[in-house]
Amino acid sequence: MSRNPTTALLESTRLKREFFTRNRDAITAQSMMLAATLKRGGKLISFGNGGSAADAQRAAECLLRKGLPAVALPSLFTPDGPAFSSLYTALRRKGDCALAISTSGNSSNILETVQVAQEAGDPVIAFTGNSGGRLRGMVPSALVVGDDTTNHAVARIQEVHLMLVHELCAATFALL
Q1: What is the 3-state secondary structure (H, E, C) of 41-73?
Q2: What is the C-alpha separation between 172 and 140, in angstroms, rounded?
């Protein structure tokens, strides 16, 4: 049985429309937090595993193209190792902001790095999917694609996350 590509596209479009309609105010709040970080001389430090690492790199690249300070932590380390938290600690300075991206919200290296950022007093922006996993509990303002009753495919979640990266950056630029 083959899947109808039109069905996938319609689901993708519906999910994006619902997410961005429901989260308009939360995205604005996250953009304001990022703009405040940049205005006071801080930088964005973004991180994720796999496809989320690509989204983290895209977030940093969007800011860097505008001459704004940002870095994406490299994804060449094992998902369960402490590398992200060690890198975050080495690169962060007072006033920086973290962007954690995890489709499941349960990646141990992402959760550990969020904890390090929070303990340092850094604001944290988080993107996750479905129920939000443990990340949602750590970052109450996390932007979650889906809910406790919906199980979206990783591809759909990552599509929304990439659009969210672009929207977060565009809204931040408008505030600077």
Answers
A1: CCCEEEEECCHHHHHHHHHHHHHHHCCCCEEEC
A2: 20
Which residue ranges of the chain lie beneath pLDDT 50?
A: none
In this structure, the number of other CB atoms found within 10 A of the CB of residue 35 comes to: 18
CA distance 98 to 135: 13
Predicted confidence (pLDDT) per residue in 32-54, tens digit: 999 999 999 999 999 999 899 99
Global pTM reads 0.93
Per-residue H/E/C for the chain: CCCCHHHHHHHHHHHHHHHHHHCHHHHHHHHHHHHHHHHCCCCEEEEECCHHHHHHHHHHHHHHHCCCCEEECCCCCCCCCCHHHHHHHHHCCCCCEEEEECCCCCCHHHHHHHHHHHHCCCCEEEEEECCCHHHHHHCCCCEEECCCCCCCCHHHHHHHHHHHHHHHHHHHHHHC
pLDDT of residue 84: 85
Predicted pLDDT at 12: 87
Q: How many whole angstroms separate alpha carbon 94 and alpha carbon 73?
A: 18
Quote the pLDDT of residue 174.
97
pLDDT (0 to 100) of residue 81 = 53
Instruction: Give me the helix-helix angle, 5-22 and 154-175, nearest 10°.
Output: 40
